C-alpha cells in the first residue's frame, strides 16, 4: 500500500503496473498532499511506503521512528518549468516576465509546496519577485497551479515539467528553469514501519531504485538524483 | 469509466446513504429536544451543532484524524482506531453535515401548532405516539430538506473525507476525490464524464424527491 | 365516590384561575360565564393540558392530579373527549382518519361508539375523504365533535361545541348528547354562552366569573334563583319536573302533570308515566288576578307570588310558587301596579304551551 | 346605482356556488343558511379571495370584478372590512398592532374610526399589549371585529362575528354596528346562524341554500312570509314598523304606535316621533275571540286571520293582518279548533310587551 | 498571529458577510417564487438549486475557474475575468451555499397559514406589503437558519475558494486557507490557535444569534 504525493500519482501508476506484472504483487495507491499524508501516517494510516514531494517530511518520519531507518532515498527530482500557453514568444524569459501587460502569474504556494518554494527562489534570483508581487496567484499545490494556467485564468506560471504532456508541451512558450536558480526539488521515498515486514512493500521499495524504474521516471519529466 | 471510479461511486453512495440515515436518526431527537426544552443549555447546544461548519473541512478533518487515531479520544475506545475506515468516514461526514439536518428539522418542529399536539394528547396518544402520528407527518418538508441537504453535502464532501479516509480505493475513496484526482491529473475528459454523470444522477434523484413532496402538499 | 372534585390555581398576567368545586359525576354540567371568565382555562386544567398550575382533581373516585403529592396523570391516560373551542383538526389527515384517531387508540374492549352511526347523527358522512382545509366552519366543528365522541371517553369536555352550528343541526345533535350521558353514563362538562342551549341540555349549572366558580347547583334550582345573573337574561325561566300523563292525538298535544297542576304541550313522543323536565320562560308567563277568559293560551296555573326583583328598565321578575313548584314571570312595573302584586298575592299564571322547551 | 350586485360561479368537489343577486347597497344584509350552504364561500368571492371562480361584482356602482372583461380588483384595493369565521389574528403582532394594521394602511383622509373608542365598545382596552395566543376565544373574536372596523371599510363582511360572544357582550356591540351603517353609511353583509341576532340587527335578509341565494328581501317582508324555512324556527316572528308616541315614566314604559294599534314596551331611550322597528315572536302572540279580561298582558291588538300553515307536531303558524301590518302567531292545533279559526276570523292578539325585542 | 492571518480574517469576514447578504437577497425572492408558483418548472428549479452541493467543491471550483477566466462564459463579460478576484469568490461561494439559504426559507414560507395573508390582503396590504409585514416576520426562524448556515458555510468553505481565489493576500486569501496552510506546513501550533480562535469567535456569534432568536419566540 503506497501513499504518494498527488503530483506523482500518474508516474506511480505506470511504475506499479510494470511492478505488478513483474512480481505478481498487488499495489494499492492513495494520493493526497504530502502534508496530509504525513499527518495521516503519524496517526496510524495503513500505508507501507511513502513517496513524498519533498525531503522534509520523510526525514521527520525517520526521526520520529515511524519509518525504517536508512530506507530513505530520492526517487525523483522535480524540474521547474515556465509555461505560457498563449504566448508564441521567442526570446529571453526575463523579458516575458517583465512585460507590462501581464495580469496573473501563477506559482504554487511557497509555504506548502516544494515547487512553490522553487518558484519563489527563481523569481528572487531573477530579481523579479518584488515586481511581480501584486500579480501572483498561488495554487495550493502544483497541480492546481497548472489548472490556473490551463483554464486561461492565469496567463503563465511555473509548473513542473513532469506535468506537461506531449500535447501541452507543444502549446505556447516553455522555458526549463536552470537548476542554478533554485534549490533542487528532491522528492524522497521511505519505507514505513508498517511496511518493514511486508515483502511486497520491500520489493516495491527496491524496484523503485532499480534502473528500469529510474529510466521510466526520467522519461516522465523528472530529473534523477546523482548521488 | 475506470473500475476505481465505479468502486468510488459505490463507496460514495453507501457513505451518503449511511450518513444521512444516521443523521436523520440522531438529528430528529436532537432537534425535537431543542424545540421542547426549556433548558439553559439549549442555546449553547444550538451553537455547538452549527460549529463544525465554520472550520475548513480539511482542518476539521485534521482534528478528527487526531481524535479517531488509535491513540485519540474516540479512536482510543476501539482496538485499531477509526481513522481510515468506513466507520470513521461516516463519523466525520455526520459531524460535518449535522447542522444541515438539525436546523431544518428544528424549524419544522417549531412551526407545528401546539394545539395539534394537545388535541392528540386528549385522544389517547402518548408522547411517542404523538411524535410519530402528528409531528413527523406535519414536518415532512423539513425532513425532505434535511435529507437532501445531508445527502448532497455528503456526496460533495471532500476535505474531511480525504483527511480521515486516506483515499483508499474500494474502502474510503469516494467519488468526489476520484473526480478531483482526475482534474489534478489533467484527465479532463474523465472528470467531465464523472461530474456530468454525478450531476445528472443527482438531478434526477432530487427532481423525483421534490416532485413527490410537491404532490403531497397539494392534496 | 361519584363526582368531579377539583381545585385549581393558575396564574397568568392579568388573570387568575382559582376554581374549586365538586360537580356531579354524571349528567351534563354546563359552565356558563362571560367571555374571558376562565371557562376554557378550567377545561384545560381538567384535561391535564395546563401542568403549570397547582391543582387537585378527582373524577368519580379516581385521583387524576394532586400537585401536593406530585401526582399527575397525563392527558392521554385520562380517557377524555375534548372538543376544543377551535376545531383543532389534524391538517394532514383526512376527515375519516381524524375521526378514527382516538378510536384506534382505544383498547378494543372499551370501544363503544360507531363511526357510521356518529356520522349519521352529525351529518358528516359525505365528508370522510376531505381534508380539514376543505370544510366549512360548521363542518369542522362537527368533525371535532365526532372525533371526541369516538374516543370512547369516560369524561367529555366540550368548549362551545355548537357555536358554529345552525339551530336545526343543533336540534339533531342535542338528543344524542343527552342519550350519551343517560345511557352510557358519561359525565359531560359543557361550556356555552347560550342560555337556551344550556337549559335544553344541562342537568347542572356552574357559573364562572373571573376565574372562580361563582355558584353551582342543579339546573332547576339555579334557574329559579332570581338573584343570580342568569335571571337577568332574556331567556330566563323556570325548569319544572313533570310526568307524562297522556296524549291528545287529535290535537297533537301531550298532557304533563306537575305538583302545581297540569300543562299541555305540543305532542312529545314519550310514554305515559315517564318523567320529563320542561322549561317555561319568564317572558312567556303572564299573570292575572281572575281566571282568564277564552284565549289561545291553554295553560293556566294557580300560584302565589313569593318574591319580586326589580331588574331595571321597568321590568320586574316575579317568582311564584305553584303547589311547591317555583315558576318565574317577567312583567312590567305597570302590570305589577295595576294588579297590585305583593308577596303572597294569589294569581293565575298563563303559560303559552308552545313556548315550553324540552 | 346603489346596490351590491353579484353573480359568482365556483366549482369544488361536491359543492357548487352559483349565487346571483342584487343586495341593497346600504344597511345590514344578513346571510342566513345551514352549515355548509356556501355563506363563507360567497363572502370570500365578494372579498376577492377566490380568484378561481367566474364572477361579476358591482358595489354601489363601482365594478370590482368582471371575469368576462378580465377585470379583477385585488382585495387590498377593495377597502373592505372582513371578519373571518376564525379570528385570523396575526400571531406575531400584539393586539394593538393587529388592530392598527389596516388603520395604518388607510389614507389619512379616509380614516374614520378611533382606536380608543372601538376598544371601549368591544371591551378590549386591557388586552392591547397581549399576543393573540394569550387571549380567550371571545377576546380573539372581538379583536378581529375591531381590526376590521378600524380598516375604515366601505363594505363590511362579517362571518359569524359574534358566535363566541355572550349575550350581554353582543348587546353592547350590536347598537354600534347599527350606528355604523346608519351614520357612516357602510353596507354590511352579516353571516349568522342566530335568527334572534339577525332580527335584531339586519334590515335585509338573504337566504342561502346549496350555494344559491334562495330568496332575499327586506327583513319585515321575509319574516312575515310563513312559507319560508325561517318561519319554522323557534324564534320566528313578525317585524313591525312603529313610531314612538310617548313615555310613561312612572312605569318605565314607552308607547309605540303602528297602523294596527298601539303597543307598550319597556322604556326605550328614543325621542317621541322617532321611528322604531320592533319584533314580535310568533310564540309570544296568543289569540282570543273576545277581548281578554285583566291580565299582565298589556298589549291587545285587533286583527284578522289571513293565512294558516301546519308546521307539524300539532303546531300551526297563523298570519294575521292588524290594520295592514302583518303579525305572526304560533298556536296549537287544539287552540285553532277550540277557537274555530279560519281565514277571515277576527281575533284579539295578545302580546306580552316585554317580549318585544328591538 | 501573523499579519497575513489577520488580513485573511478580514477577507473571510467580508466574504462571508457579503455572500450571506447576497444569498438572502437572492434567495428570498427565489424561495418565495418557489412557494407561490404553480409553474411546471418549480420542481426542476428546486432540484437545480440543490445541485451545486453534490459536486466536490474543488471540482465545482474548477468549472467555475473555467467560467470565470477572461475567456470564460461569465469572465468573458468583464475585461480581466473574475477569477482570482473578490467578486469571483463571492460568486463561487454564493453558488455553493445557495441551497442552504433557499431551502430553509422555502420551508418557512410554506408553513405560513394562508389565512394570515388573506386577512392582510383585506386590510389594504399589497402583495409586497404583505410580504414584508406578514411573511418576513413569521419566517424569522427560517431566516436565522438560512443566514447562519450560509454564513458559517462560507467561513468554512475552502475548495471553491482555493480554486478560484488564487490565495492572494488581502484579497482572496481567506482564513480557512491560512489554517490549511499552517497544517500543511506542519505549523500545528499556529493552526491550533487559529482554529481555536475561529471556533470561539463563531461560537460566540452563533450563541448570541440563537439566544436572541429564542428570546423572540417566547414572548
Ligand atoms: N396564554 C395566556 N396568557 C395570558 N393570559 C391568557 C392566556 N390564555 C388566556 N388568557 C386570559 O385568561 C382569561 C381566561 O381565558 P379563557 O380562555 O379561560 O376564557 P373563556 O372563559 O374561555 O372565554 P371565551 O368565552 O371568550 O372563550 C382571559 O382573560 C384571557 O385573556
Ligand atoms: N377548499 C375547499 N375545497 C372543497 N370544498 C370546500 C372547500 N371549502 C369549502 N368547501 C365546501 O363548500 C361548501 C360551502 O362551504 P362554506 O364554507 O361556504 O359554508 P358555510 O355556509 O360558510 O358553512 P358554515 O356555516 O358551516 O361555516 C361546504 O360543503 C364545504 O364542505
Ligand atoms: Mg374559551
Ligand atoms: Mg362558514
Please provide a written account of the structure:
The complex is a heteropentamer, with 1 copy of chain A (about 230 residues), 2 copies of chain B (about 220 residues) and 2 copies of chain C (about 350 residues). Chain A is an alpha/beta fold and about 230 residues long. Chain A has helices at about 10-25, 35-40, 55-65, 95-100, 115-125, 130, 140-150, 165-170, 200-210, 210-220; strands at about 1-5, 30, 50, 75-80, 80-85, 105-110, 135-140, 155-160, 175, 185-190. A 5-stranded mixed sheet of chain A has the order 2-1-3-10-4. Chain B starts with a helix and ends with a helix. The model of chain B has no long low-confidence stretch (mean pLDDT about 85). Chain C is about 20% helix and about 35% strand. Chain C has 2 domains: about 5-225, 3-Layer(aba) Sandwich (Rossmann fold); about 235-355, OB fold (Dihydrolipoamide Acetyltransferase, E2P), CATH 2.40.50. In chain C, strands 7-8-9-3-10-11 form a 6-stranded mixed sheet, with helices on both faces. A 5-stranded antiparallel sheet of chain C has the order 2-1-4-5-6, with helices on one face. A 5-stranded antiparallel sheet of chain C has the order 16-20-17-18-19. By secondary structure, chain C is an alpha+beta fold. Chain C has helices spanning about 40-45, 95-105, 115-120, 135-150, 165-185, 195-200, 220-225, 335-340; strands at about 5-10, 15-25, 30, 55-60, 60-65, 70, 80-85, 155-160, 190, 205-210, 210-220, 235-250, 255-260, 260-265, 275-280, 285-290, 300-310, 315-320, 325-330, 345-350. One adenosine-5'-triphosphate sits at the interface of chains D and C.
Based on the model shown, name its key terms:
heteropentamer, B: 219 residues, mainly alpha, MetI-like fold, C: 358 residues, alpha+beta, Rossmann fold, OB fold (Dihydrolipoamide Acetyltransferase, E2P), 2 domains, six-stranded mixed sheet, five-stranded antiparallel sheet, binds adenosine-5'-triphosphate, binds magnesium ion
The greatest interface between two protein chains, and residues involved on each side, is: C-D, 73 and 73 residues
**Largest sheet of chain B, described in full?**
none
Remind me, CATH topology of chain B? Answer: MetI-like fold
Q: For the report, how would you describe the main beta sheet of chain A?
A: 5 strands, mixed
Radius of gyration of chain A: 18 Å
Spatial sequence of strands, sheet with the most strands of chain A: 2-1-3-10-4
Secondary-structure element pattern of chain B, one letter each: HHHHHHHHHH
CATH H-level superfamily title of chain B: MetI-like
Domain module tally of chain B: 1
Structural class of chain B: mainly alpha
Specify the CATH class of chain B. Answer: Mainly Alpha
Low-pLDDT segments, ≥5 res of chain A:
none
CATH architecture verdict of chain B:
Orthogonal Bundle
Strand content of chain A: 15-25%
User: Tell me, what's the shape of chain B?
Assistant: globular
Counting DSSP H or I runs of 4 or more residues, the number of helices of chain B is 10
Q: Helical residue percent of chain B?
A: over 70%
Number of strands of chain A: 10
Portion in beta strands of chain B: under 5%
